[in-house]
Amino acid sequence: MNSENFLLSEKIVSPSYVRQGSQARRGHEQLIRQLLEQGKCPEEGWSESTVELFLNELAVMDSNNFLGNCGVGEREGRVASGLVARRHYRLIHGIGRSGDIAAIQPKAAGSSLLNKLTNSVVLDILKLSGVRSVASCFVVPMATGMSLALCFLTLRHRRPKARYIIWPRIDQKSCFKSMITAGFEPVVVENVLDGDELRTDLEAVERKVEELGAENILCVHSTTSCFAPRVPDSLEELAAMCAKHNIPHVVNNAYGVQSSKCMHLIQQGARVGRIDAFVQSLDKNFMVPVGGAIIAGFDAAFIEEISKMYPGGWALLQCCLVASTSVFVFSHERLHDLQEIYSILAEELKRLASAHGERLLHTPHNPISLAMSLDGLQATSDKAVTQLGSMLFTRQVSGARVIPLGKEQIINGYTFRGFMSHSESYPCPYLNAASAIGITREDVALCIKRLDKSLKALKKEGKAARSPSPLASQNL
Amino acid sequence: MNSENFLLSEKIVSPSYVRQGSQARRGHEQLIRQLLEQGKCPEEGWSESTVELFLNELAVMDSNNFLGNCGVGEREGRVASGLVARRHYRLIHGIGRSGDIAAIQPKAAGSSLLNKLTNSVVLDILKLSGVRSVASCFVVPMATGMSLALCFLTLRHRRPKARYIIWPRIDQKSCFKSMITAGFEPVVVENVLDGDELRTDLEAVERKVEELGAENILCVHSTTSCFAPRVPDSLEELAAMCAKHNIPHVVNNAYGVQSSKCMHLIQQGARVGRIDAFVQSLDKNFMVPVGGAIIAGFDAAFIEEISKMYPGGWALLQCCLVASTSVFVFSHERLHDLQEIYSILAEELKRLASAHGERLLHTPHNPISLAMSLDGLQATSDKAVTQLGSMLFTRQVSGARVIPLGKEQIINGYTFRGFMSHSESYPCPYLNAASAIGITREDVALCIKRLDKSLKALKKEGKAARSPSPLASQNL
Amino acid sequence: MNSENFLLSEKIVSPSYVRQGSQARRGHEQLIRQLLEQGKCPEEGWSESTVELFLNELAVMDSNNFLGNCGVGEREGRVASGLVARRHYRLIHGIGRSGDIAAIQPKAAGSSLLNKLTNSVVLDILKLSGVRSVASCFVVPMATGMSLALCFLTLRHRRPKARYIIWPRIDQKSCFKSMITAGFEPVVVENVLDGDELRTDLEAVERKVEELGAENILCVHSTTSCFAPRVPDSLEELAAMCAKHNIPHVVNNAYGVQSSKCMHLIQQGARVGRIDAFVQSLDKNFMVPVGGAIIAGFDAAFIEEISKMYPGGWALLQCCLVASTSVFVFSHERLHDLQEIYSILAEELKRLASAHGERLLHTPHNPISLAMSLDGLQATSDKAVTQLGSMLFTRQVSGARVIPLGKEQIINGYTFRGFMSHSESYPCPYLNAASAIGITREDVALCIKRLDKSLKALKKEGKAARSPSPLASQNL
Amino acid sequence: MNSENFLLSEKIVSPSYVRQGSQARRGHEQLIRQLLEQGKCPEEGWSESTVELFLNELAVMDSNNFLGNCGVGEREGRVASGLVARRHYRLIHGIGRSGDIAAIQPKAAGSSLLNKLTNSVVLDILKLSGVRSVASCFVVPMATGMSLALCFLTLRHRRPKARYIIWPRIDQKSCFKSMITAGFEPVVVENVLDGDELRTDLEAVERKVEELGAENILCVHSTTSCFAPRVPDSLEELAAMCAKHNIPHVVNNAYGVQSSKCMHLIQQGARVGRIDAFVQSLDKNFMVPVGGAIIAGFDAAFIEEISKMYPGGWALLQCCLVASTSVFVFSHERLHDLQEIYSILAEELKRLASAHGERLLHTPHNPISLAMSLDGLQATSDKAVTQLGSMLFTRQVSGARVIPLGKEQIINGYTFRGFMSHSESYPCPYLNAASAIGITREDVALCIKRLDKSLKALKKEGKAARSPSPLASQNL
User: Fold this and answer.
1) C109-332 belongs to which CATH class?
2) Which of chain A's residues have a Cβ under 8 Å away from the Cβ of C8?
3) How large is the average pLDDT for residues A381-410?
4) Which residues are recorded as modified (N6-(pyridoxal phosphate)lysine) (chains A, B, C, D) (predicted)?
5) pLDDT band at D314 (very low <50, low <70, confident <90, very high)
6) What confidence tens digit (pLDDT) does each residue in A208-235 have?
């Protein structure tokens, strides 16, 4: 409804009512104006109706929705099923131009706008979350692992002779594979045990650098967010070391945007040393069901170089479409409500652990994930620990990982002993739980309740199994 | 509604009516059963209501939709906005497990099923379209270019010393960049002019192989679908050459699935020689607004190797979700209706060309794209050719590319003369139009009409410009 | 996106692309302007995207969607489930004000606008369909029967002493009940047989008027659309008679808007005589799944009187919302495509009838419904006619009614002999099929095919039943 | 997914995962089973996903969605726009059969089931809300006013000579008009002032009965929910009087379902005396954007008689569809959370009133609506009271009605002095606010804040207006 149409409407229903309606429209437009002007995360998250209004407006600007459009190219935003068009707000043209993800697509002004705004709001959120001096970022329509690989492939053009990537061990497959995929040799540096925590072995890293020669090392590949008892890598020290030896430094910040501690580590690392790029999941930090990542850094030119290395352009739209529905409803407030549930979860796990003769591992440097020992459980039966995993699965507790001792895993020819525990020999089996974005108090309460029941059931079984009474075993 | 609930319903409304309703349900279930049993493209495409029913059923199977679920992991299928959940049929958990795209995700049985079925139906469509002996394929949540890069990165592990990729020139950025991104040196082989057609210079390829040494060549990277007057590469001969020299062969089949000729070329290439993988766009062949590709091949083990090389697993769902809405509504019939519009477009363009003193280039080997010379137009004014492009853009004809002579472009340090024309010196400027999947007779009619108007307007302008009358020029 | 926001967008993506997008928006706005200006059925039906855009715009104007609204009244457009709000485009406030359906609702400017426009476009469609001199109409959120009752109740205030309504018989319950509900005594006038057709017995009507006295008659209640072999009432003659005796005349035009013949009858009746109101179904003429009717007439003051008689105001929105999605996509063309399928259906039924020894009843005055005799079928077995009905039901032929002879039905104390056949003694049993709005050639083809199969099966059964062979009967 | 399809799925993804998925499905089916078995309001409201699953299942049972259906009737559930079909879950056939709202529609088993279940759950909610002995109810697709008219029209058949309806005054148009529409003469009984409250003048009612003669009175038409300072009618006493004189009694319970006090009054009235039917808004009690009402009573036969009086049958579906999305998400808990906000609103209004020299009227018998005097405001200026209304409108406070003194209104020939105040001469002007279903604490807080601002602004203006200072008036 433009002003002309509002005027016409005043002839049909009372002018004062129409004017109030038109003013209400201006309310939404004001929010859109702020976004267009500032490109920042709104103070208050948008309502769904504003998001929908905006997406519908953008769709109208794309050529596939022009009322008189005809297409004779190889794609032209056609869809096999109207179902899909509607579900995507008719934003069904691609963005970017062949081979350049950052180029504006002439046929899709609305979608291109959405892309720019999404990148801009995401950059603002990175800043608000703690990396105040981040210079540039872009959403890339690939999983985190493949996005890390893209960073490594870009660095190869700068360091054609380098063959190694130094990597403080973290037991997660895709970040390991990202190095293999890119064609490099990972140099795994085992972590050191410090109390209950597993932290970066800085001396071992330094030794490796000297041993291999800085010029043969593509980069150091460190990690922030991880499962306890591993803690985020010592980014400041690693960054300083990289600066000293002139080695690039890429940080896997998978789901670290939601943690001000992880973000602070990156900010500090960049301040005192060198961080070339940090990569985070779109999915995990913004709760969107779409595979995408954000590649960010402190040198806009290098980030642009990575973006130019991405061979494709049409794949971006869905990421932005979905991301926008999320980041536009984020608010400043939203960014700070995780701490509270983390505390509740820690408190509750601690209470539960002590009730069952276990303990909450002391991992104060991990801001998201917690771990509870399962020593006692293991003592009851060899299989009890893995059984606990199955029981939690059956009882619909999702995300609570059980880590037994001594598992061995071969990935792309590399053998990891004690796999899943980030260590060749962690002292005890344990269970992980995390307070990640979107978790509710109800999730915590239900998880604790079902964990309690499962532990009790297993201990009863364990006692029964060890007891000679034939009767008892019938109770199973 | 299970049978128990149908029985209960019979107490509420007349049993015979309920039974007819239950039988109607069985109709949908029958279609689902066939899909589950055979994993094939349905004879008749599904209706939207069957697709929605099935997606809703699958969603119910995913843990994030369990009525009593609680989650304490780092993701757990949470969403920032309900809007997104609904638009995605609540299929918002990822598929695959960390680092393995093909692994079943325990928390997402429904989504995993969708993934398997999508891959299976896509494989069937590849066969039906002409590559009868294809052994395996998978949907990968990355653009075509990045997917080609993934193939090259996988081959590197097999041929660690190879540095070159032989590439018959095609002027499309992302497939060129895919080689750069993967860290290889593209060896560009110019095409030869044969009548109006630009086709593979087989002798030049052979010369390059000998010059560089087969062992230093990672692979030959050929192309099927392309803009006229270039035609699909001579796949049979290239495949035979690759077999002879023991060089891998990767085919960029971007939007070739829709053409039985392109698919036949691949089938024949594999029969008489060597094709290791062929890669096609999900978006372009199946008309879905999502960035994805299909990597397929004749050796299931090698395709699996590529799939294992992909470092990520969560990004796949959206591809499958969207792809499924498309491939399930495809039918056998659907696969064969392009030929007709191609003929109409060719006919109409020919008529138009002759009316304007131009001609339809004779490119019988290109089954999708057509080209019309713009010699005459260029003669009227230097700028007329590019002006035509703008006019078509303004008149909402999308996809009709105008190719002027002599454009130069530098990509990643390589200079391409005559860029966009696949040739350093094509004899004439021209305009492209394609009959790609989803095009309608209305598209063709409108395009021809507007093209006609634009050409007339430009010629009038041209005459005016060449005329000495000062008055005429004011009419511009 | 207002002009300010478009300007801001030009700083983010290329101005020329944004301008084209903004121009595209103007395309939709132009359509909306025309609607607001003229209030007429669009020449070309709107696309779904324009309809959605407009409804979203209107929703923004309603107070329940104001960004800063707070409500302390008894309703305020709240919803129990977001699901409902979205499905209704957030148009969830009522229209009208307590007790006055036509009053503008200050809190719902958008919805009120929608109401006015819907009424206006519907009026235009009534004119285009043939009632050129209709003066006024309004959508009323009640079924046709209740809407007829409302007309009678309004007339009561003008003719407080009148107790009778004269009603040429049509065997449809709700129009009969509408008279009972309103508290009047229906005077049923049997139809006369004229060839195969059943038409109004004008002399009997005249006799009844004289017998009862014009002042004791509330109105004549006639019918247009009906099942063959009944044909539309002789409206011209009835209207003239009403004018002569000064008796009001209400026409039940249930699904007659789709027939130019029915509409022409009304136009002619009003021209030569008296028609006070004609009532039609929203559902049946505009294919919308909502219970509503349109009350129309030639004297705007009387139509307003009826509208003021409706005690309620909040119930209208859904009718308008749903109606608008339909009437806005109607086009002039749409209004004239029924004739063709009617001819096909007649042709096919005729062929089928003669193949089975039956005949298509000759009912040229019924423009929508057709009837095929079932004499022969009845001869094979007593139950065969009703069995045919069940078979068609089971074979998913819906809407094909089978009319056996001699059914008796009591409604509100009145006994109808030969119920369903509009006559106490129609000469033969028959089957009805109609060519109503929305029917497709596929419907006709499938119906004929299944009807053929069913008739064959029944005849086979019939022969078997009459045959003495014990074997044959086992084949049942 | 039936069991066969689950089994097939187990061959595609891991059986244990599929089994968990199938079990999850059973969770939803269990809820559906309970509904089908008991027909009651669920203990815990359903999630949106269960509602959608169920509606989709029902749609599959309707003939318009049969995969092989063909239709040759006059309606057959066709739609003009797919948009509408989807928005209505493809439930687009009607329910009921021509002329009988309660009859099962053979072509729409799913929709018919929905109708029965909706009526059943609504009945349960009426019981849970306090009318424990209600015997029967049905949803009728008409506004409350028209539904009241239907009750009166039904009673006419029982009391053909009765002309009057006795009606304790309540200033709401549609319930007044319902009597006019049905063709009766309303006998308005003014209320008596009791403290601040306006309550039923029982003696006046008794006098009227005697004056007019019980046999000439169709019924007493009383009201529960209303705006303060009027309070619900004295139902017990009225019901007893009706029983004594053998006069029917119809209660307008417009938005009273949400109040246990209103419901208790009805229950008590029926226990000690006579209540024939009570009518409530679907829209207002269940927060659904659809015009519908619920007619309920203690004698199932009489309620059926009313239902049979409704001439129509196709109009019901939308009511049920929309109602079901609401009533299925209701829970027992939901029914009891209004009291708290009522207390907050009362508290806040009281505080505000005393701060502005006004007072909260003492109306303890009105459980929903509150009133605050505006004596002081009126004293500042004659127009101040109506100005306050405009200010609140402009400041987006909806539902807060301002009642000035001495307004006169003529409705259908009847003159109401002091209209809107339920009294010819209420002692003071006042403002209404209500705590109705769906209201939030934010609504209350915002309303109080804006009301405070408006009152301050008006008083400042008032002072300025009365002040002689020329300067002050410039501040306006």
Assistant:
1) alpha beta
2) 33, 36-37
3) 91
4) 284
5) low
6) 999 999 999 999 999 999 999 999 999 9
Helices A3-10 & C15-38 angle (0-180, nearest 10): 10
pLDDT confidence band for C335 (50 / 70 / 90): low
Residues across chain B: 476
Distance CA C384, CA C431 (A): 12
> Which value, to the nearest 10 degrees, does the dihedral of the CA atoms of residues B463, B468, B469, B475 take?
40
Q: What is the pLDDT of residue C98?
A: 63
Find the distance separating the first CA and the last CA of chain A, reported in whole Å: 70
Domains of chain A, residue spans: 1-38, 109-330, 337-474
pTM of the model: 0.88
What the block records as the tokens of A1 is 């409804």
Which residue's structure tokens are 């068609």?
Answer: C392
What CA–CA distance (Å, rounded) separates C98 from B152? 72
pLDDT tens-place string over residues B287-330: 887 778 999 999 999 999 999 998 876 557 667 777 777 777 66
Q: Under an 8 A CB cutoff, do D74 and C316 touch?
A: no
CA–CA separation, C82 vs A87, rounded Å?
17
Band the pLDDT of C50: cuts 50, 70, 90.
confident
Check CB contact under 8 Å for D20 and A82.
Answer: no
Q: Report yes or no: D218 and D164 within 8 Å, Cβ to Cβ.
A: yes
d(CA D262, CA D235) in angstroms, rounded, equals 9
In terms of residues, how long is chain D? 476
D-contacting chains (≥3 CB pairs under 8 Å): A, B, C
Which residue in chain A has the smallest CA separation from B86? A87
**Within chain B, what is the greatest distance between any pair of CA atoms?**
92
Which residue of chain D is at minimal alpha-carbon distance from C285? D75
Q: Quick one: D337-474 is in which CATH superfamily?
A: Aspartate Aminotransferase, domain 1 (3.90.1150.10)
Looking at residue C420, what is its pLDDT? 94
CA distance B20 to chain C (A): 7
Task: Give strand pairing partners of D199.
Answer: D192
Q: What is the DSSP string of D158-223?
A: H-TT--EEEEE----HHHHHHHHHTT-EEEEE--EEETTEEE--HHHHHHHHHHH-GGGEEEEEEE
Assigned token pair, D65:
């969605």
Q: Do domains D109-333 and D337-474 have the same CATH topology?
A: no
Tell me, yes or no, if D121 comes closer than 8 A to chain C by beta carbon.
Answer: no
Say yes or no to pLDDT of D327 above 90.
no
**Contact residues on chain A for C39, CB-CB shorter than 8 A:** 12
Euclidean distance between CA atoms A72 and D314, whole angstroms: 46
Q: What's the topology of domain D109-333?
A: Aspartate Aminotransferase; domain 2 (3.40.640)
From the list B5, B65, B116, which residue is nearest D12 (CB)? B116
What number is the average pLDDT over the span B436-458?
Answer: 93
Residue D294 tokens read as: 């619920």
Nearest residue to D298 via CA among D226, D365, D368, D243: D243
What is the model's pLDDT at position C467? 60
Q: Evaluate if residue A204 carries a pLDDT over 90.
A: yes
CA dist B144 and B151 (Å) reads: 11
Looking at residue A80, what DSSP letter applies?
S
Domain range A109-330, CATH class: alpha beta
Question: Do residues A209 and B135 lie in contact, with contact meaning Cβ atoms separated by under 8 Å?
Answer: no
D29, pLDDT greater than 80: yes
Dig out the tokens for D281 from the structure. 């808004």
Question: D11 to chain C, minimum CA–CA distance in Å?
Answer: 34
Asked whether B428 and B375 are in contact (CB, 8 A), the reply is: yes
Alpha-carbon span B75 to A439, nearest angstrom: 9
Which of B82, B393, B394 is the closest to C82 by Cβ? B82
Residue D390, Cα to own-chain centre: how many angstroms?
A: 26
Identify residue D443 by its one-letter amino acid code.
D
For chain B positions 48-87, those within 8 Å of chain D (CB to CB) are: 49-50, 52-53, 56-57, 59-63, 65-68
Q: Tokens 């000729």 identify what position?
A: B261
